Every structure is written in structure tokens, then in C-alpha cells.
UniProtKB/TrEMBL annotation:
Residues 239-249 have a biased composition (Acidic residues). Residues 174-190 have a biased composition (Basic and acidic residues). Residues 80-99, 174-249 are annotated as: Disordered. This is Cytoplasmic protein. It holds the Pfam family TrcR. It comes from Roseovarius litorisediminis. InterPro entries: TrcR.
Length: 249
């Protein structure tokens, strides 16, 4: 159910100008019943001027009369055709001024770690424009040398669920198109929940990488048996008697 504009001020007006009970007013404006009671006692919304919902086309007098007669009657917001579709307004996400300077860093993070995301998806996630995304992709942004990639979720520009949904959508689109993906790209297309639930893959230490097929006892390609050596053979010195015979005339 929709809520009236200026809910607290509307509650003040209903408390001051009608005999509708606190529960009915609380359900209509989206407040707690005790908070409405606090308005009546003067403990809440002190100094707030009442907002007439009838004069502002949010409630009819007939609806107020029905609620005063029946304590169980629920007030219904007056239908306003001009307000339809406002919650589904199209366009880029609104980003507060305090966080707008962080958008290039989040765009660079998305471009670097999720290159499969389309510009339209990035625009919806962080509330930016396609020319800005393109400039960062091509590294022609005026401040590209000072931009460091930062996760948009950590910056508060989008929710983790929204990022995961965009990544999953990109994965489905790429799979539908039949494009081959590398292992690294496939890992990037996983959601955070799936990635954290996977078992860690065993990795070969860098120091011995590439030596996993090396064997000390392996034979040569032609099957020839390796020559065996003993320790004494390395320390045998030439016989001195042979040198003495060569010196005699």
C-alpha cells in the first residue's frame, strides 16, 4: 500500500482534526502506534505543522468519516494517476555528492575484474554515464593515472546482491552466445556466495613450478639404460708408475 506525502505532518493533522484511533492513523502513515500516541501527547513531532491530506488530494472526506464510524476500517490512499510509475523511474542511479568522486575508482574496478559487464550494467550499478565508462576502458580519462580500482560494494555505491545479479546476467548472456571462456573468466562470473562456497584448488609452489614431470630415475628417450657410477670412480687418480716409465731413457 502506498504512503501519503509528509507522513508525520499528515499524522499530526489527523490527530488534531479527527477522532480516528491511533492504530488506524499509524497503519495509514506507516508509523508505530505508540509514535502516533506520542504526537497526541505532545512528546513527538513538537512544532510540526499539520498537513491536510484532504486538501492535498491524498484522502477523501468520505474515507475519514468511514474510519471514524468503524474502528476497524483501514484508511486507503486516494488514487492519483499522476503518481503512477514513480517508483520505477528509468535512468541512472542517483549518487550522493559525497560519493560521486568515488565513481571512477569503482568503474575501474568493474572494468578490470568484470570486463564481461556491459556499459549499461555498470551505469546502473554505480550511477554514471557511458562516455565516462568508455574513457576509463580506453584509459583516456583525464585523471586515469591517479585512479585506483575499488570495489563499488565497499564504497556503498551498490549492493552485493545487485552486483551478483549483474554478473550472473552477463554469464548467462555469454553462455547463450556460445563464446568460449577461460578458467579465469569463469571464476569472475561466479557470485560472491558461490565463490566463497567453492573448495580451494591445490596450487604448486612457485619454486618448483614446471618441475612436476621431472624424475631423477627416468630413462632416456631411446630406452638406453643409464650408466651407473660408484663413488670411488670419481676419486681414482692416475698411476704414478706410468709416469716413471716414461721418464726413463
Amino acid at each position: 500500500m502506498g504512503r501519503p506525502l509528509m507522513a508525520k505532518a499528515t499524522a499530526v493533522w489527523l490527530v488534531d482534526n479527527t477522532t480516528i484511533n491511533f492504530k488506524q492513523i499509524a497503519d495509514f502513515v506507516g508509523m508505530h502506534e505508540l509514535e502516533v500516541q506520542g504526537i497526541a501527547d505532545g512528546d513527538v513531532a513538537a512544532g510540526v505543522k499539520g498537513f491536510d491530506p484532504v486538501a492535498n488530494n491524498q484522502l477523501t472526506q468520505e474515507e475519514i468519516d468511514a474510519a471514524e464510524k468503524d474502528p476497524l476500517h483501514k484508511l486507503k490512499l486516494k488514487f492519483n494517476a499522476a503518481a503512477q510509475g514513480e517508483e520505477k523511474r528509468r535512468g541512472p542511479r542517483y549518487t550522493p555528492l559525497s560519493k560521486r568522486q568515488d565513481r571512477p575508482a569503482s568503474i575501474l574496478w568493474l572494468v578490470k575484474f568484470h570486463p564481461e559487464l556491459a556499459d549499461s550494467q555498470i551505469s546502473k550499478l554505480v550511477g554514471t554515464t557511458k562516455p565516462t565508462i568508455q574513457a576509463i576502458r580506453e584509459r583516456t580519462h583525464w585523471n586515469i593515472s591517479n585512479i585506483q580500482p575499488i570495489d563499488p560494494v565497499a564504497l556503498g555505491l551498490c549492493k552485493q546482491s545487485e552486483l551478483d545479479a549483474a554478473v550472473q546476467k552477463a554469464a548467462a548472456k555469454k553462455a547463450k552466445e556460445g563464446e568460449a571462456m577461460s578458467d579465469d573468466e569463469r571464476r569472475k562470473l561466479l557470485s560472491t556466495e558461490q565463490s566463497l562456497g567453492m573448495e580451494a584448488e591445490p596450487k604448486i609452489p612457485t619454486a618448483i613450478e614446471g618441475l612436476e614431470t621431472f624424475s631423477l630415475s627416468g630413462g632416456s628417450d631411446d630406452g638406453e639404460k643409464e650408466k651407473e657410477y660408484d663413488a670411488d670412480s670419481f676419486f681414482n687418480l692416475p698411476d704414478d708408475s706410468d709416469d716413471d716409465e716414461d721418464e726413463q731413457p
